[in-house]
Amino acid sequence: MKTLQVLAPVALVGELNGDILAVKNPDTRVPIASVTKLLITYQLYDAIKQGILSWHDRLVTSQRIADFTKSDLVAEIKLSTGESYTVEDALDAFFILSENTFAFVFAEKIFQNIANWQAQTIKLLAKWGINNPVIPNPSGLSNQDLVTYQDPEMTDSYEPLFSAKEVLTMTSHLVNDFPEILALTQKMKFNFVTDRQVYPYLNRFKFLAIPTHKWLGLKTGTSPDTESFVGVVEAKGRRYITVYLAARIEFLEPKGTNCYIESEKMLTDVLG
After folding, report:
1. How far apart, in Å, do the first and last CA atoms of the chain sit?
2. pLDDT value, residue 253
3. pTM of the predicted protein model
4. Which of 67, 212, 258, 266 is most buried, judging by how many CB atoms fall within 10 Å of its CB?
5. Alpha carbon of 4 to those of 230, 245, 254, 261: distances in Å?
6. How many other CB atoms are found less than 10 A from the CB of residue 103?
């Protein structure tokens, strides 16, 4: 199997069916930041499929969520207690802006509380062959940044950890079971609409402008120290997944672009 030469300590190129083509430390678990959001996204789509929620259901902001959004570090969109919006608008902002707030909104709506979400997520991951996961919250944030959702019994640095193989598995399930997620990531303009505000925003995913291959989605993840990118690309009549995790930001200039450049390079190296 080909070994990838990339800046990230952990990387992988595989097919949508889960077959692996090239790797770098594929079994090493690292912080994946907002790539973690793939899990609650899957669970939301599944809840819609089962009829537990509909896209037009309205979600009402709790005091805890309103207080969470006061932190500029974790929330771009500010919400007030009682403010309401649709599930569909929340998903758009959650996946495109990586708005952490809605990870907790979805988890509490579907599973009642974060403890139940965690228990059910561990069961889901075990079903997918991922055992003993480190999955303390649905957003990918470290404990010190969780504001109203901090766990006082855990260290500040406690955060979700996954390997490239595990992220490949998560991504394959999401895209195969709910391929409509790719249509979402292709849209360019959005409005997050509540009963109190309209918040316009643009798709900031830079992979849409990468010319060499036809990138279709999927998710970035950044922390103060690292950045990650999981991409779905169409090439030679097939679909592939690139996994690029926990690259140190001090080695990356300009910030927020090298994860795309490196992913394109490793895909070219594997596919030509």
Report:
1. 16
2. 52
3. 0.95
4. 266
5. 15, 13, 22, 14
6. 26
